[in-house]
Design brief:
The protein is α/β, with parallel strands linked by helices. Helices cover 38% and strands 23% of the residues. The chain has 15 helices and 16 strands. The strands form two sheets. Strands 5, 6, 7, 8, 9, 10, 11, 12 and 13 form a nine-stranded parallel β-sheet that branches. Strands 3-2-1-4-14-15-16 form a seven-stranded mixed β-sheet. β15 and β16 form a beta hairpin. α12 packs across α15, α13 crosses α15 and α14 runs antiparallel to α15. The chain binds guanine and zinc ion. Its EC number is 3.5.4.3.
């Protein structure tokens, strides 16, 4: 079996970096090597040491002076919203009704779903993201299309057919029973096939009847190892409508709690306006709050209080995601730049090591997949991004005055986008699509 030996400046995190001087939180090699075989990283460290472990025929690729990091992880995005992104002038509920639901009706057509799944994963990988937790449309065919495309590329992705049976147009509605049956069939076909993971995906409480949340609950009980993903506390009108629809619930989180949907594999998009009780409930169950900065700014939803959630007595597990197409960019670098600004508006700062921890190991921990991805550790899957901090004239000029790794990372976050992504490896294979394709 042929192997690949990568050379470059390698950076991988071991834990949350408290400060920019917290060197033991990461492993950085100025002349690093990664030996890839059978889709895995079989050796990592100083190039001179790793080279000794490479077999005679190993293919050598020299990425110096660029940075090699674990591929970025996007824990919340909607693949059927590629033609919703950049839709003007509405807050969440109007935006869903005016743009999103009509667009998602097109995924009744399996061919359309296959085309968009292909273009979505092209776009994601082109931006340096190697794992995404994706919402499909309500149609079973859309999830089939997503998983088939993901499996063909040998990507580790998490996805699910959205369950929604009310408060939306006929063309994007299922029923409690059909949602259960379709989810069951998709789980049987795709979960654990290669690197595919199924997520039980009730869209949110507004579009799921109590009967449907009962079905989601049954699916979670029957498949306790699966992820569950939904939306929570994004927008004030959404919260008010939810409490009207679920009058017995003490708050929005309680709606999901009642159906047993909280837990360590549960991913809650947004979580902006949580009460202390709701945050405690998420923390007690190890549920994950997914911060979606470009989306929250674009839809005017609010400012996620990242540092408060992290530092409270009962801290939240936090992921950071694009939320395309409410989110406005596929790039996790652009996402983290906007995240930095949201956190700044809350009077706090995130240092660049913390940002890159979040995009890699942090998001992998939040998704409970850190045993496979999110680091460059020996034994990990070989999902890798190659970053060039001099990718544009403005970046090159600014790099003239950047002396430290922290400055370089911050520059990548602040000025970088897909142009800074030189190459991407998915399960050990170079995978960056051609721009013209
Ligand atoms: N809440 C329910 N559905 C959606 C969606 O598609 N995008 C966002 N941002 N919020 C939602
Ligand atoms: Zn979303």
């Amino acid at each position: 079996m042929t192997s690949t030996l990568l050379r470059g400046r390698t950076l991988s995190f071991l834990r949350w970096p408290e400060t920019v001087d917290d060197h033991s939180a990461w492993r950085y090699e100025d002349d690093g090597g990664l030996l890839l075989r059978n889709g895995r990283i079989v050796a990592a460290g100083a190039y001179a040491d790793v080279e000794k472990k490479a077999d005679e025929g190993a293919k050598k690729i020299d990425h110096r002076p660029h940075l090699l990091l674990p591929g970025f992880i996007d824990p919340h995005a909607h693949f059927p919203q590629m033609q919703v992104i950049a839709s003007y002038g509405a807050e969440l509920l109007d935006w869903l009704n005016a743009y999103t639901f009509p667009e998602e009706t097109k995924f009744q057509n399996a061919q359309h779903g296959r085309r968009i799944a292909r273009l979505f994963l092209d776009e994601v990988v082109r931006h340096g993201t190697t794992t995404v937790a994706a919402y499909c449309s309500v149609h079973r065919e859309s999830a089939e299309a997503f998983f088939a495309e993901s499996h063909d590329r040998n990507m580790l992705n998490i996805a699910g057919k959205v369950m929604m049976d009310r408060n939306a147009p006929e063309g994007v509605l299922d029923t409690p029973q059909s949602a259960y049956d379709d989810s069951k069939a998709l789980i049987a076909e795709w979960h654990g096939k290669g690197r595919q993971h199924y997520a039980i995906t009730p869209r949110f409480a507004i579009t799921s009847s109590p009967e449907q949340l009962e079905m989601a609950s049954a699916l979670c009980r029957e498949h306790p190892d699966l992820h569950m993903q939904t939306h929570l506390s994004e927008n004030h009108a959404e919260i008010a409508f939810t409490l009207q629809l679920y009058p017995k619930a003490s708050d929005y989180t309680d709606v999901y709690e009642h159906y047993g949907l909280l837990g360590r594999k549960s991913l809650f998009g947004h979580c902006i306006h949580l009460s202390e009780r709701e945050a405690d409930a998420l923390s007690d169950t190890g549920s994950v709050a997914v911060f979606c900065p470009t989306s929250n700014l674009f839809l005017g939803s609010g400012l996620f209080d990242y540092q408060r959630y992290r530092r409270r007595e009962k801290p939240l597990r936090i992921a950071t995601a694009t939320d395309v197409g409410g989110g406005t960019n596929y790039s996790m670098l652009r996402t983290m730049d906007e995240g930095y600004k949201v956190i700044a508006l809350n009077g706090e700062k995130l240092n660049p090591f913390q940002s890159f921890w979040q995009l890699t190991r942090g998001n992998a921990e939040a998704l409970s997949i850190v045993e496979r991805v999110g680091t460059l550790d020996q034994g990990s899957d070989a999902d890798i991004v190659v970053l060039d901090a001099c990718a544009t004239p403005a970046m090159r000029l600014r790099m003239e005055t950047a002396d430290t790794l922290a400055e370089e990372l911050f520059l990548l976050q602040t000025l970088g986008d897909d142009r800074a992504v030189r190459e991407v490896y998915v399960a050990g294979r170079a995978a960056k699509p051609d721009m013209a394709a």
